[in-house]
Amino acid sequence: MALQASKIQVGDTHTQKLTDDLSRTQIVQYAGASGDYNPLHSDEIFTTKVAGYPTVFAHGMLTMGMTGRMVTDYVGDGRLTAYGVRFTRQVWPGDALTATAKIDAVREEDGQNLVDLSVSTVNQDGDVVVMGKATAKIDP
Amino acid sequence: MAAKKFPIEAGHIMMFARAVGDPNPIYHDADAAADTEPGNVIAPPTFYQSSAQYDPDYFLRPKIGEPWFGSGKNPTGVPPKRTGGDGGTGLHAEQRFEYFRHVSPGETLTIKTRPGKTWERQGKRGGKLTFSENITEYFDESGELVVRATGVGVRTEKVVESD
Predict the structure, then answer these.
(1) How many CB atoms lie within 10 A of CB A15?
(2) In this predicted structure, what is the pLDDT of residue B69?
(3) What is the number of H-type helices and E-type strands within chain B?
(4) Considering chain A, what is the average pLDDT of its residues?
(5) DSSP assignment of B118-137, as one string?
(6) What would the pLDDT profile of B30-52 be if each residue is shown by its tens digit?
(7) φ and ψ of A9, to 5 deg
(8) Which of A19, A21, A36, A47 to probe by mutation at the B interface, max B CB count within 10 Å?
(9) Which of B57, B109, B60 is nearest to A34 (CA)?
(10) Distance from A11 to chain B by nearest Cα, in Å?
(11) Which residues contact A12 (CB under 8 A, 6 or more apart)?
(12) CA dist., res. B66 & res. B53, Å (int)
């Protein structure tokens, strides 16, 4: 299931749809599982009347977690050695998200084959919502 | 401040994987996971963030019997300027994980946190932006570092407008 160094090359991409219509309920699910109950993510009254946003929005970590699915589906289970993102734009209920990994490097370190990836997720308008990097152990 | 111990539990991993929309059986089916390379249920890559569940003082969870800043009778249950920010907002700017090993249910991790760098930048719309790093390290029962998480928070002077 893991990637093989002999079968991939720099520039290869892998794209996966994460959601067609992000629901407020999924954001609530993430609040419950992660323990981050910041009302900005589930409490419409607080978010609009006190915080001044148009509506609730997703935890950045929800988008990072959803994007992580694309990364682990691509590199294989238990293969990640690093994964990091910047949160570049808010994700709102109703957004459709698509994640892409691009191979930046295929290398060897201490006898272990590794792949370095650029990772990004875009919304329905093509705007980047998270972007970052990942590194994973791969087979020869 | 932060959680000291983080018990890794199968039900917690299952609920977390559902929340991030990941149906991979390795996160919820021990029998299916036995046939995978790790050979066991493992935690999804960003699961470690949910150690907040075990932080008794975590400020983004309502405390029993205490006022909560979300809405109830009123749009907020506490007076404004609670955090001392002048109408500004704290947001999560960046998050990085380094994995030295992937953990499985039944393990209990020990957590150590420390502040990282702090820096400032002039934002386009939100005025001055103050960034600060927080480093959280997760150790297993034999004292080995298994995951290092680095979070970067940003505090804005004004509410960030959407486009």
Answers:
(1) 12
(2) 94
(3) 2, 5
(4) 97
(5) EEEEE-SSSSEEEEEEEEEE
(6) 999 999 999 999 999 999 999 99
(7) -145, 160
(8) A36
(9) B60
(10) 23
(11) A102, A103
(12) 17
Query: Would B88 be classed as within a structural domain?
Result: yes
- Give the model confidence (pLDDT) of A11-67 as tens digits: 999 999 999 999 999 999 999 999 999 999 999 999 999 999 999 999 999 999 999
Q: What is the pLDDT of residue B163?
A: 41
Whether A90 contacts chain B with CB within 8 A: yes
The pLDDT-based confidence of B126 (bands split at 50, 70, 90) is low
ipTM higher than threshold 0.90? yes
**Domain residues for B39?**
5-156
Length of chain A equals 140
How many CA atoms, within 13 angstroms, populate the side-chain half-sphere of residue A91? 33
Q: What is the C-alpha to C-alpha distance for residues B22 and B1, in angstroms, rounded to an integer?
A: 31
Q: What would the two tokens of residue B6 be?
A: 């983080």
B111: domain CATH number is: 3.10.129.10
Class for the domain spanning A5-22+60-138: alpha beta
Q: Identify whether B163 is part of a domain.
A: no
Closest chain B CA to residue A30: B19
Q: Is residue B55 part of a domain?
A: yes
What is the Cα Rg of chain B in Å? 19
Distance from A12 to chain B by nearest Cα, in Å? Answer: 22
- Look up residue A67 and give its two tokens: 């994007």
With beta carbons less than 8 A apart as the criterion, state whether A29 and A62 touch: no
| Structural domains counted in chain B | 1
Domain boundaries, chain A: 5-22+60-138
Domain-embedded: residue B162 = no
